[in-house]
Amino acid sequence: MEWREVPEPVRACCAALWAAGETACPVGGCVRDSLLGRRPEDWDVATSARPETVRALFPRTVPTGLRHGTVTVLLDGMSLEVTAFRREEGYSDGRRPDRVVFGVGLTEDLARRDFTINAMALLPDGRVADPFGGQADLRAGLVRCVGDPAARFREDALRMLRAVRFAAQLGFAVEEGTAAALEREAAGLDRVSAERVRVELEKILLSPRPALAALPAALGMLSRFGVPARPVDLTALTALPPTPEERWRGFCRLTGLDITSLPVERRLRRAVLADPAPVPALTGGALYRMGLRGAAIGAALDVLRTHISEHPEDNTEERLLFILKKRGL
Q1: Among residues 196, 231, 236, which one has the least CA distance to residue 215?
Q2: pTM score, whole prediction
Q3: Do residues 144 and 177 make contact, with C-beta atoms less than 8 angstroms apart?
Q4: Residue 1 burial (C-beta neighbours within 10 Å; 0-12, 13-18, 19+)
Q5: CA 76, CA 8: separation in Å to the nearest integer?
């Protein structure tokens, strides 16, 4: 990874912090995606500077998370999250740290992160700081927790869904020890808000590998939403269009998830609960070639839709032709 690949506003942000005598570097997902040859959606900067220093250096900032050391810097059309190096202590709610300690170094800051592939930073000399083997895991295609996976999941239970999400989006496998911890700590997801669960689950469903959503379902992570803890085959989701409506509808029907138990938009809820008209295997074009015209085609299709809604096993061209002939159409 080279600095020339980094967008100019990010370079300018880091340069301003360097000039002020601070350490600063792109960190996390932007480094991961760049190493994979993917275009990062967001760029985050980690720095030795405290939030008050960051706010004094840049004319346009938003205090998005001062308690946790985060300031959003608005620079040349980009929004950059600039966060002070920190150590986190105590996670009594299973989601957020009770206490944040500033004044630590880069390695300790990286040590608090969820997965090795997200615990890397681009140093000023162009080297990648990678104290936990993130680059090796990128090459191996593995999602592995930093340190003890059970501890990482107890700190923030949402990380369990994030592990599955990264595997689904990147085409990776969940590392063996991390996968074992998922099973042991699955019940911890009950402490996470339904909104956060919905967001991560939707990212899995819209990924190239939506079938991986079967893992949290099988482990009982979604029991409170009406999904029984048992193995389920979701390979059929891959054939569906990657839209929220289609993937959620398919997921709910295959797993038993009650979409009304999740905070989703009314439009999406209606789309999932709607019973779409079945599509006959015998198309209007085929009926036209058989000699039917105009209203006769519509009438024939209505008959077929009604029939296959009651007898979906009959939805083959051969069987539907037989039914039409039997009806005298």
Answers
A1: 231
A2: 0.81
A3: yes
A4: middle
A5: 9
**CA–CA separation, 209 vs 144, rounded Å?**
18
d(CA 245, CA 276) in angstroms, rounded, equals 11
Per-residue pLDDT of the chain (329 residues; tens, 9 = 90+): 788 889 999 999 999 999 999 999 999 999 999 999 999 999 999 999 999 999 999 999 999 888 889 999 999 989 999 999 999 887 877 777 888 899 899 999 999 999 999 999 999 999 999 999 999 999 999 999 999 999 999 999 999 999 999 999 999 999 999 999 999 999 999 999 999 999 999 999 999 999 999 999 999 999 998 898 999 999 999 988 999 999 999 999 889 888 999 999 999 998 888 866 567 888 877 888 888 887 788 788 888 878 887 777 788 888 888 888 887 76
